[in-house]
Write a structure and sequence with these properties.
The complex is a heterodimer of chains A (267) and B (303).
Chain A: H1 2-12, H2 15-39, E1 46-47, E2 55-56, H3 59-62, H4 70-96, H5 99-106, H6 110-147, H7 157-188, H8 191-212, H9 221-229, H10 238-262
Antiparallel strand pairs in A: 1-2
Chain B: E1 7-16, E2 19-29, E3 34-38, H1 45-52, E4 60-65, E5 68-69, E6 80-83, H2 95-106, H3 112-119, H4 135-147, E7 153-157, H5 165-179, E8 184-188, H6 192-198, E9 201-206, E10 209-215, H7 216-221, E11 224-231, H8 234-246, E12 250-254, E13 257-261, H9 266-276, E14 281-288, H10 291-299
Helix pairs in contact in B: 3-4
The chains are: A mainly alpha (267), B alpha/beta (303).
Chain lengths: 267, 303
């Protein structure tokens, strides 16, 4: 699998690609953090139970140990969708452009090839989120200084722990989004169809269903990932959300692997 | 050189639902040959090549590439280079970056890249994005990629598709250059003249089934279409027709000459008989059928 990872890195390490993706992560992080710190006026935070991640942060909350990473978590919530779209496009376009033929001619062990591609992209995302978190914390410090928000708790051991935990939550969610994107790409083998199905399910459909059934956020993959990404788990505990999503991951990856190995490559 | 053929198929069959794309194809390609793969659109050429490359699974039958079963492509693909159904690369990467990607995935040293770029004549444009390449350059890059592993078998599916005459000539010369390096080449094409000029072995399929396999020369020899005889006097041509028909051969007028459908061995007898009648032959030209003629005969299609 290492050859497949290194091959994918040939594409990812190009300056234009690095600048584009890292620039996007930094921009999202800057925007989310600046807005989170600049727009809040009340002391208390409010949490919308029906929309995991829809948190209005209070000034007191921002001054706590986890305050430095709150902006990062909000921004990463949006970036999760970007991850799903990126993986769906990246995998489905291999079929659309016919490059999948090349991949399997160069290495016929299909799971190894696309597994390596998945890991390389995931590694790239991990670096991107690390850059985003560092950017977010730096931005938070600047804006907090301007607004007079205390920062001494950010640098405590608890502050560091929550920063690491925030990164972990975001990465776990990102892996979920990536699996979702890869799953639809390998099953539908078309960028347009994969994106249409994934985006339509995760956003309008899940939210419409959630409006009429409160249990949806304990079960549906998109809502669960939003909860996991912000570190709360949403309507359920973070651990429970991760466990539920692990079952999804097994099913999605199993189906994706089966279709990949068994189906003919006619692209 | 080993005795096993480069490619061997036995009743190879592929069905997509109710449609049979390849029906019991049995043929072999000897090692070291340049072999052509000919058939009309939809005859099953690309599906057959995909099965040989492990991209498509056979429904029935067996196939062997370099002695290994096609159901286990990991056992032989490292020794095969292939261009299947047109060049497919990453548009934003340069030609060289695309080859670096391929070399990495195929576990081939980057040291091979300058050589294959030089072979296909793309060294000067290797730093340009793939999207800026002409179709001919894209085809050549695909052949360069296929040559990265210094393959024992090179499979090229319609490498001249969509090319102008200059591009077709470039690819033909390239195939000849590659063949001189030693690998077996299996080349599918619609351009029968190209196949005839490059390939010493030929496989013809039609509607998924095998029509002919063997030496191109044998196929064309089997299509001996007699010879054309010319004289100075038209009345003498009448004599030639009578002589040929009298000997049991078809003969008719064609463009001021006589076309005699008889084996070459009859030329001596006809010359002698004509001389006995005082007829001087000014021309005797054997008529050789083209691959195109033979193809339409074999496939039962009208040209």
């Amino acid at each position: 699998m290492s050859a497949a990872i290194r091959a994918e890195l040939v594409k990812l390490k190009r300056p234009k690609m690095l600048a584009g993706v890292m620039g996007l992560m930094i921009a999202l992080s800057l925007l989310a953090t600046t807005l989170a710190f600049a727009l809040t006026n009340s002391d208390a935070s409010s949490f919308n139970e029906k929309r995991p991640g829809a948190v209005t942060l209070g000034l007191a909350e921002l001054g706590k140990a986890n305050g430095a990473t709150r902006g990062f978590l909000i921004g990463a919530g949006f970036a999760g969708v970007v991850v799903m779209v990126t993986f769906a496009v990246s995998f489905a376009s291999e079929f659309g452009t016919g490059t999948i033929r090349n991949l399997f001619l160069l290495d016929p062990r299909r799971l190894r090839v696309l597994g390596g591609k998945f890991l390389a992209l995931m590694g790239f995302a991990a670096v991107g989120f690390a850059v985003a978190e560092v950017t977010s914390i730096a931005t938070a410090a600047i804006v907090a200084g301007i607004r007079g928000i205390p920062m001494h708790e950010w640098t405590t051991l608890e502050g560091v722990r929550t920063a690491v935990a925030a990164y972990g939550s975001v990465m776990v969610a990102a892996i979920g989004w990536a699996i979702l994107g890869t799953f639809v790409a390998l099953v539908f083998r078309s960028v347009a169809v994969a994106l249409a199905v994934a985006v339509a399910w995760v956003f309008p459909l899940e939210n419409i269903l959630h409006n009429s059934w409160s249990g949806a956020d304990k079960l549906f993959p998109g809502l669960l990932l939003q909860g996991i990404g912000v570190g709360t788990g949403g309507a359920v505990s973070w651990t429970q959300a991760v466990l539920t999503w692990s079952a999804y991951a097994v099913v999605f990856l199993g189906i994706a692997a089966l279709t990949l190995v068994k189906r003919d490559v006619t692209a | 050189m080993t005795s096993t053929p480069a490619i061997l198929t036995e009743r190879l069959t592929k069905r997509f639902g109710s449609r049979t794309a390849v029906s019991g194809a049995t043929f072999e390609i000897p090692r070291g040959t340049v072999a052509g793969f000919v058939g009309p659109n939809g005859a099953g050429k690309s599906t057959t090549l995909r099965m040989l490359c492990g991209l498509v699974r056979p429904t029935n039958g067996e196939g062997f590439v370099l002695g290994q079963p096609i159901r286990e492509p990991h056992r032989y693909l490292a020794r095969v280079g292939a261009l299947i159904e047109g060049p497919a690369f990453y548009a934003g990467l340069t030609g060289r970056e695309n080859l670096e990607f391929a070399a990495t995935l195929a576990r081939v040293s980057f040291d091979r890249i300058p050589g294959v770029l030089d072979l296909v004549g793309l060294s000067d444009r290797a730093g340009d994005p793939f999207r800026t390449y002409s179709l001919g350059m894209k085809q050549r890059l695909a052949i360069a990629q296929a040559m990265l592993r210094d393959p024992e078998l090179l499979i090229l599916d319609e490498p001249t598709n969509g090319l102008d005459p200059a591009g077709i000539r470039e690819i033909r010369d390239l195939v000849r250059a590659i063949a001189s390096l030693g690998p077996t080449v299996f080349l599918s094409s619609h351009l029968l003249h190209e196949i005839q000029s490059v390939c010493e072995w030929i496989v013809v399929i039609e509607r998924g089934g095998l029509v002919y396999e063997g030496r191109t020369a044998h196929l064309l020899a089997g299509a001996d279409q007699g010879f054309v005889v010319g004289t100075d006097d038209r009345a003498d041509l009448e004599t030639i027709v009578q002589l040929a028909r009298g000997a049991g051969h078809d003969a008719d007028f064609r463009d001021g000459r006589v076309h005699v459908r008889a084996p070459k061995e009859y030329i001596t007898e006809l010359s002698r008989a004509a001389a006995d009648r005082g007829v001087v032959l000014t021309e005797i030209t054997p008529v050789q059928a083209s691959l195109e003629d033979r193809f339409f005969e074999l496939t039962g299609r009208d040209s």
